Structure formats: structure tokens, C-alpha cells
What does this fold into?
Amino acid sequence: MAATNTITNLAAQAAQAADIRDIRPLVDIPNPWIWLWIGLGVLLLAAAAVWIWRWLQKRKAETPAAPPIPAHLLARQRLQEAFVLLPQPKPFIIAVSNTLRAYLEDAFQMRAPEQTTEEFLVELQHSHLLSQGQKSSLGDFLQSCDLVKFARYEPRESELRELHAYAVELVAQTEPSPEPAEEIQESTVRPPAPGDASQPSINHRQS
It folds into this structure.
């Protein structure tokens, strides 16, 4: 009987031991505040980006633009730069003729770069911005350039230099006249002492 009780107790203990389970791992409970802070951070970054963009645009608008280079000075600069192309007749002529056409457009509002030589010469005859002699020589210049650009004419270096010199001369003839400098009235000087022949006399000019 005692043996039976012992067996029963052991069986009960074994059953209890089998029923004991391991402790479950901790379960992470999401914090709702994290997503709120993430959303606020994204909004702040977006607001900062918009503010920086507007500040840059405002500063750009407030920065004074550099004054444009006068047409005649720009033409002179480009004509000087064209000299590096002198060994290559066609690129040289294209650079020179395009420079002169661009100058005429900027200085006289002619549509020179957009027109063929024939169209431009027709419009030129109705213009009062150039003298008749300048119109005639400009027509000869453009037609000579077309021979090199389209008719495969191979000019001598002396001819290229003549065409270049003409372009420079036309710019010089048609550039705006410099404004006369204002005459500065001379200040009053101490009159010479009696008998001082070395002191020069100064004649005041009426400005």
C-alpha cells in the first residue's frame, strides 16, 4: 500500500513538473509618441527647407545684376578672340561675320543673325542707321563671307585680315560717341605779388 502511494506521489510530481513552462519573453509595446515625434521632425525639416529656399530667392533678387557689356566692347573682344582661328579660313570667317551680325542686332535692333544675307541686305536698304557707303561696304563684306562659308572659296590670309579689319572699322565707326567730360572750373589762385614776374597768370574759361 505504501509503495502504491509512493508511486502515485511520484506520478503527481512528474505531472506537475511537466506542466511547468518557461517564462515568456517580454513583449514590446509600441510607443505612440515615437511616431508623433517623427512626424514633427519631418514637418520641421520641410519648413526649414522652404524657409532657406525663400531666403535664397530673396537674396538673389536683392543682388544687383552686373551691368551688361556694351555691344561695341563685346564685339571688339570677340573680334580679337577670333584671331586664333586665322589659320582656319572658314571658322575664322564664321566667327567674324557672326560677331558683326550680333553687334548690329544689339546696337541697332536689326535681326541680322536670324536672316539670310539677301534678307538682311533688303532690310538694310530701308534703315537710316547706317550711311549709304556703310550699307554698300557691309553688303560686300557679307557676300565675301558667304563665298568662304558656302562656296568653298579659299581666301588668302591677306584677304582674311582685310575682312577682319573691316569688321573692326565698322564697329569703331558706329559705336556710341563718348560723353564729353564736364569741364571743371579752375579754382581761384593767389594773385601774383607786385613785381613777381615768375608767377604765371591763369585765364579762367567760362564753362
Remarks:
- The CA atoms of residues 37 and 43 lie 10 Å apart.
